[in-house]
Amino acid sequence: MAYWLFxxxxxxxxxxxxxxxxxxxxxxxxxxxxxxxxxxxxxxxGDRGFFYHSNEGKQIVGIVEVVTLAHPDSTSxxxxxxxxxxxAVEDMPKPVTLxxxxxxxxxxxxxxxxxxxxxxxxxxxxxxxxxxxxxxxxG
DNA sequence: GCCAACGTTGGC
DNA sequence: GCCAACGTTGGC
Length: 139
Fold this sequence. Notes:
Largest sheet: 6 strands, mixed
CATH superfamily: ph1033 like domains
Helix content: 25-40%
Number of domains: 1
CATH topology: ph1033 like fold
CATH architecture: Roll
Radius of gyration: 14 Å
CATH class: Alpha Beta
Shape: globular
């Protein structure tokens, strides 16, 4: 299984809204960046991701799961843009802030800290385990 | 609200 | 195909 990180501004799409979408999940729309789209194309059913609030909060607040493979983004006329569907799995018992991630040497190579502009990022097994530990989850 | 970093666009 | 100009993102 692969791990990912999804960024969203809570003003446009928040963790609360994601949870409200329930078990069938909802499209992760609005990605208009090739690198981010390619990451979504590489996703498989059951892959997991962190849900990160940018701007406001600047912290990882929950875990999501990929419930459909990449398909055309229904909010775009251009079939170039694709997205997956995500469902909320669980809250981070203790949200992991960007500041905390930056201070952790094990996370120094994480895309979140080194390429903050990328909205859908790969996460390594080691990074996943470390963030889960910081957040109070087993992983 | 500012601005640095990055990605995209478009003229040549 | 290069690169300057521009727009957007997101941390501060």
